Amino acid sequence: MTVYIKNHKFHYEIENLVRLFFPNEKIEIVFDVPSELSNPYIYTEYNDNNEEYTINIDILIDKFADKITESFSKALYPDAELQMAVMLYDMLVRFTGIKQPWGLLTGVRPVKLFRRLTEECDFDYAVSKFRNEFRVSSEKIALTIETEKNERKILDLSTEKSFSLYISIPFCPSRCSYCSFVSASVERTAHLIEPYVDLLCRELEETAAYAKNKGLNLESVYMGGGTPTTLSASQMKKVLCTVRDNFDLSKCREFTVEAGRPDTITAEKLQAIAECGVDRISINPQTLNNEVLKNIGRRHTAQEAIDTFELARSYGFNHINTDLIVGLPGDTLESFKSTLDMITQLDPESITVHTLSMKRASTLTMDGKNLDKTEAEIACEMLDYAAKKLHSCGYAPYYLYRQSRMVGNLENTGWSKKGKEGIYNVFIMDETHTILACGAGAVSKLKNNKKDCLERIFNFKYPYEYINRFNEICERKKRIGTFYDEYN
User: What pTM was estimated for this model as a whole?
Assistant: First the structure.
């Protein structure tokens, strides 16, 4: 598929929009438009006419041909990029017969966008914008409104001096077929874990010193990965005790460990986690269908996931999150319903329902798996069932985000019981305040509230890089101190 761009700079948004309808196609962006265009193509052109502008779009895809030209007053329609996107979206809907649930929105944070529109004008304006210009479905608008309402209560907890802490454990027992995260399998990198833990603790100590020196208040802690519970109980305890002993946790509202895969969780590790003051863990089977678990490369059964959940309860964890994924290979609507029914019977405090994202570096994609229209429709039905089921069980959506190449162009939603929201998830997704991040692949995000902007500090991605170039990371982290000096 060739997309021609003439007289405008909207190529990024146009490419993302085309990809919604042709997720498996290679899309080539061409600025130097030839005299003859090759089928299939999408041609987009912008012309400035003083007080107005004109947009031309011409589509030829196999035997489907469509062409439109419209002029707009700059005073009434100042956003030419949006007008071009709306025109192209409607043409692609006519061609494919597919109305995208999120319309022409391609961004990660639709809830944040809705909130900004509400604050800039009012609620009715935001709803109208989503429905009439962004072409978002009524169901997704309702989900956005409910999620934003619940998010706002959490965002109001943050102050100018607030920050959260992220701790990266980039190791996994094996790599799931859908995953593209930078993580290293334990079989190949076991020798790196001990030196990694030692240096991670050093980075945590230095980071805590910066936070203390600048008078920052820790709101939440999140240990993620990878799979943090690939660490031994003693290694886990060492990291968590370093946090407890160096950071002021007196105002910390939430301390989460993403325990992750049930096959890595033991009684000894749960005891170590509990002893260090962690009050929230996540156990993530993704599905309770044993055949699907095999398809995605998991090394545990559905029953083992259930047993692990109950084991965690026995160690006093009263806030457990469980992750599920809709659209997994081999999953059906009925088996997903069965999974969700069993999960709700376990009665976790929060449930995150993800939609499969076909990342380019994942094994599924590398093996030739494509996004499929029928699978997209089934995934949509799965999410519809999840919303009805979770609402009926007392859960409400409290955060939401989207990724590229998601099955059905859908979303990931965190659901929780009242008062059991995962507040770190909201803070990181909204980019509310500073996130100080430690470990391989971690990215610290320093928030300037006065200018409403972020500055990022990147750590090296891979464990061996982190270990070999640790001094460079320490040099980069000095920026935390100078950032707040300049900010104040």
Answer: 0.92
